[in-house]
Specification:
Blueprint (H helix, E strand, L loop, with lengths): L2 H10 L5 E5 L3 E2 L39 H4 L2 H9 L2 E4 L6 E6 L2 H10 L4 E4 L4 E6 L5 E5 L2 E4 L5 E2 L9 E2 L2 H4 L32 H16 L5 H16 L7 H13 L4 H14 L3
Parallel strand pairs: 6-10
Antiparallel strand pairs: 1-2, 1-3, 3-9, 4-6, 4-8, 5-6, 7-8
């Protein structure tokens, strides 16, 4: 059996979601519909694209603990070409502080509580129990890999893993900010014309919401337009069958407000998207 697949199966048996990486530490498209970006996504990059597969299939969202998926024909070519194995820290209940230089390691040894460490090619991974939002370049040579991200598997590491400390959570906070109110209940129309829900699995809706949150969070400019287009995409895919709940809507509004949008603008953007779709 392929050594990378064997490693993946071993990790999956410990409830650690895994995926294959090719040259450049990037994931494969793991289904025919998404191979080579045919779905319009970005399998050559680190983020999954907006594919319409019934299950997640590439990027960090491809990580799975299901041995039947890992050994399926759809993944066979990926394992033949794989150069390493990655895992989804957030899916395993972990946060990885990726220290990408000796200077970053030296800083962590002073600033962060000691925990389990894994030696990397340029520095170290520090592993903590608990999850948080992922973020790049929180300090020179320091990335946070947890939810909606992946990290290379480089071995179990050494030392005793501790709970995620506030010092790590604080790394993603640029500056103190007042707490913005989360919008209350938003009424989402039920199924139009009595049609059945097209979402074959709950993971399909969850992936859509997670990708929408990521799209808003990663917006570097044109935040107003990004929020509206994202709301429009979510409602177009999930708004007519009644699957969206207030909790899903609150997640989208929270992501938008974290980028500086007001609750009023979120409401207006949501309403305009509903109107544009005739809902």
């Amino acid at each position: 059996m392929n050594k990378h697949l064997q490693t993946a199966l071993t990790l999956a048996s410990t409830n650690t979601p895994v995926l294959a990486l090719r040259v450049g530490k990037v994931p494969f498209g793991n289904c025919r519909a998404c191979a080579d970006g045919a779905c319009g996504g970005r399998p050559h990059m680190k983020n999954p694209g907006p594919c319409q597969c019934p299950d997640v299939c590439h990027g960090w969202a491809a990580a799975t603990t299901n041995p039947h998926v890992l050994t399926s024909a759809a993944w066979a070519q990926a394992w033949r070409q794989a150069v390493s194995v990655a895992y989804h820290p957030g899916g395993a209940g972990l946060t990885v502080v990726d220290l990408d230089s000796p200077e970053a390691v030296a800083w962590a040894q002073v600033a962060l509580p000691a925990t389990r460490t894994v030696v990397t090619t340029r520095g170290e991974h520090w592993l903590y129990r608990g999850t948080m939002q992922s973020a790049n370049a929180v300090r020179p040579g320091v990335d946070i890999k947890s939810l909606m991200s992946y990290a290379r598997w480089l071995g179990p590491g050494t030392g005793t893993m501790i709970a995620l400390p506030g010092a790590v959570r604080a790394l993603i906070l640029k500056e103190p900010a007042p707490v913005r109110p989360v919008l209350g209940a938003v009424s989402v129309p039920g199924s139009v014309g009595g049609g059945q829900c097209p979402h074959r699995r709950p993971a399909y809706l969850e992936r859509g919401i997670a990708m929408a949150e990521q799209r808003i969070t990663e917006a570097s400019s044109g935040v107003h337009a990004t929020v509206y287009r994202t709301f429009l995409a979510v409602l177009s895919a999930h708004g007519r069958c009644g699957c969206l709940t207030e909790a899903h809507t609150a997640r989208l509004f929270t992501a938008a407000q974290a980028k500086g949008e007001t609750a009023r603008h979120c409401t207006d953007a949501w309403t305009n998207a509903l109107t544009a779709l005739g809902m």
